[in-house]
Amino acid sequence: MKKTKTLITELVAVPGLSAYEDQIREYLSERWQPLTDERTASKLGSLHGLKKGTGIEPRRSILIATHMDTIGMMVTSVENGLLRISKIGGIDNRTLPGLTVNVHTQEGVLPGVIALPPAHTLPESQHDVTVEMEYLWVDVGLLPGDVGKKVEIGDLVTFALEPQDLGDGYFSSPGLDNRSCVAILTETLELLQTRLHQWDVWAVATVQEEVGLVGAGTSAFAIRPDIAVVMDVTFGSGPGAPSHETMEMDKGPSFDLGPSTHPRLYQAFVDYAQSQEISFHRYGYPRGSGTDADKLQLAAEGIPTMVVSLPLRYMHTPVEVIQLRDIQRIARLVAGFIEQLNENFMDALRWDDESEAA
Fold first, then answer.
1. What is the C-alpha separation between 43 and 266, in angstroms, rounded?
2. Alpha helix segments (H runs only) across the chain
3. What would the pLDDT profile of 311-333 be if each residue is shown by its tens digit?
């Protein structure tokens, strides 16, 4: 578990807000270099890593997608030495006042704090409520003239909280949505180094998921895999969280079934997990999954897609919590599923009329 904690600690330390994923892409490209045969970037900036299979060409392929972007903020104006900010992705305003942040400027990183003005200086509508972001400021502690020289509109703002080892495998940090699943994908590639697999494996770290599921669809269209698996976080059980809408942590992944999940691919994952006595949750979503699967399954002629989710507490806050053992469980599950794919697997996914036509 120490190795997993080291990996996730490194991943959350690399900046990569939605649409600004350059640094995390460079880190992952280097990290995946010994684990993949080829690495390329899509025109939007998603990272594609190919690990070739052992089957006879042309080989079938599976795409494992997990988004590498994180939520954060952007400077929208500089006024009297203080910074106004706006959201990148779905941030909960309740968590912001009093936070320490980093402002990423052309000259380097400036530490700052998100300040909440005294209540009597705010409009009455902002009393005794969660204060809207337009009334919050970032204070970097410099004179107005110096701030104007260093900070520009469009500079990015990230959370500056340090990761916390909470004990017994529980780990807290900003950015675990979705760097925790990037860790799962990386550990899956590591496991595949010592396993034979017939199919090609495309490891894809997508961009701009948090602002519209942008990167997955273009990557899937370019790669045209036979099947795809999306790994993302889901709501983990915690204080006050309804049990029917959350997944118990330290009990393995959630298999999510809904419009973006191919039902027979879902069943294949269920059958494999049960055959290996791997624990998992079942979760049904009636509309969109809210993950890259919503766009990925629609690429080209359509791609059978599965959603495998990691339970996470306090989603979209600076203190997200995951269980490291769940990361390891899901990596073993996905690597094992890939290992048993054979040339006849796609026959099990055909619709009845498709099979007759063939």
1. 31
2. 2-13, 22-31, 144-150, 176-192, 214-223, 263-275, 293-296, 324-339, 352-357
3. 999 999 999 999 999 999 999 99
Q: Residue 122's pLDDT is what?
A: 79
DSSP state of 123: -
User: 274-284, pLDDT tens digit by residue?
Assistant: 999 999 999 99
Pairing verdict, β 254-257 and 281-284: parallel
Query: Which residue is it, tokens 């809210």?
Result: 290
Buried (b) or exposed (e) across 161-170, using 16+ Cβ within 10 A? bebeeeeebb
CATH homologous superfamily for 2-70+175-357? Zn peptidases (3.40.630.10)
240 — pLDDT class (breaks 50, 70, 90): confident
The CATH 2.40.30.40 domain(s) of the chain lie at 73-157
**Residue 187: other Cβ atoms inside 10 A:** 22
75-84: burial string, b at 16+ Cβ within 10 Å, e else: beebeebbbb
Domain(s) of CATH 3.40.630.10: residues in the chain: 2-70+175-357
pTM of the model: 0.95
Residue 353: pLDDT band by 50, 70, 90 thresholds?
A: low
The DSSP bridge pattern shows strands 61-67 and 227-235 to be parallel
CB 100 within 8 A of CB 161: yes
Domain covering 73-157: architecture: Beta Barrel (2.40)
